Amino acid sequence: MLERIRTTRGYGTARRYARGFVAAVVAVAALVLAANAGPAKAVHPEKPGHRTTSPVEAAVR
């Protein structure tokens, strides 16, 4: 009768769960860092009162 060959010494399941846990922690850390990165700053920030388009009221009159 053929016997199953074991490649680990009894703690393969624990290692598999540990690898999965570490992968989950790394994934969460990457998501948190990406969420906190925020948008990049503009090279030439516009003045607070500056508008790039005309208001609709000005175009109608």
Backbone shape: rod-shaped
Are there runs of 5+ residues with pLDDT below 50, and where? none
Number of strands: 0
If helices are DSSP runs of H or I spanning 4 or more residues, what is the number of helices? 2
What is the terminal separation in angstroms? Answer: 94 Å
Cα-based radius of gyration, to the nearest Å: 29 Å
What pattern of helices and strands is seen along the backbone? HH
Strand count, sense and closure of the main sheet? Answer: none
Strand content: under 5%
What structural category characterises the helix and strand content? mainly alpha
Helical content class: 40-55%
Query: What is the mean predicted local confidence, pLDDT?
Result: 76
What does the model show?
The structure is a single chain. This protein is an all-alpha fold and 61 residues long. Helices cover 51% and strands 0% of the residues. It is built from 2 helices and no strands. The protein has helices at 12-37, 56-60. The longest helix is centred in the middle third of the chain and has 26 residues, at 12-37. The protein starts with 11 loop residues before the first helix and ends with a helix. The model has no long low-confidence stretch (mean pLDDT 76). Residues 40-61 are annotated as: Disordered.
List the helices and strands and how they pair.
Elements: H1 12-37, H2 56-60
Short summary:
The protein has 61 residues and is mainly alpha-helical.
